[in-house]
Amino acid sequence: MSKTNPSFKWYMLALLTATGTFVVAIPFSCMPVLFKEISQDLNLSLVQIGTIWGIASLAGLFVSIIAGVLGDRFGMKAIIAICAVLVGISGALRGLATSF
Description:
By secondary structure, this protein is mainly alpha-helical. The chain has three helices and no strands. It has helices at about 5-40, 45-75, 75-95.
């Protein structure tokens, strides 16, 4: 078995932390400030806003399992890069939404 480079582990930890922060945490934490304007513009009820806000966490349960399996098979770097691009695309599609 080959030994892994210890500095690579710290690089991967930093990459995962930065990805989690900038791709997931910052956009997720910015949304509550905009809920009033979003609900008025799109005529959404409190339940609909809650559904939109919570569905990402529910989807994350299933995606994390699949991403873990794919990461073991194809490597973490490739899967993280693909997932980051997909998150960007889905965020752009959310920005183009005109109704619930």
